[in-house]
From TrEMBL:
Molecular function GO terms recorded: DNA binding; metal ion binding
Record-given protein name: Copper-sensing transcriptional repressor CsoR
UniProt source species: Bacillus velezensis
Upper taxonomic lineage: Bacteria, Bacillati, Bacillota, Bacilli, Bacillales
InterPro entries per UniProt: Metal_Tscrpt_repr, Metal_Tscrpt_repr_sf
Superkingdom: Bacteria
GO biological process: negative regulation of DNA-templated transcription
C-alpha cells in the first residue's frame, strides 16, 4: 500500500484550478513533442537546449504551485488533526527532491 494514500489528493481543488494545472501540463507536453521534432529534424543544438530549458522552467512552475497548495491544504490539515510530524517530514523530503532538480 502506498504511504501517500492516507493523505489528501487534489480533490480539494476547484475544477478551475485542476483545469489550469492540466492545461499547463498539456502545453508542456506540446513543448516536449516540439523538442522531439527538433531533434528528429536535426535542428541546431543551442535551439534545442533553449527549448529544454523552457520545459524545465515550466515544470518547476507547476511543481512549486503544487508544493504551495500541498503546504496550505494537506500539511495544514494534517497539523490541525494532530498528524503534522509525518506531513512535515514528507514535505521536507519533497522540497529536497525539487531543489535537486
Amino acid at each position: 500500500m502506498d504511504k501517500h494514500t492516507e493523505h489528501q489528493s487534489l480533490n480539494h481543488k476547484s475544477a478551475k484550478e485542476k483545469d489550469q494545472i492540466l492545461n499547463r501540463l498539456k502545453r508542456i507536453e506540446g513543448q516536449v513533442r516540439g523538442i522531439q521534432n527538433m531533434v528528429d529534424n536535426e535542428r541546431y543544438c543551442v535551439d534545442i537546449l533553449v527549448q529544454i530549458s523552457a520545459v524545465q522552467a515550466a515544470m518547476q512552475k507547476v511543481a512549486f504551485h503544487l508544493l504551495e497548495d500541498h503546504a496550505h491544504h494537506c500539511v495544514a490539515g494534517a497539523i490541525e488533526s494532530g498528524n503534522g510530524e509525518q506531513a512535515i517530514a514528507e514535505l521536507l523530503d519533497v522540497v529536497k527532491k525539487i531543489a535537486k532538480s
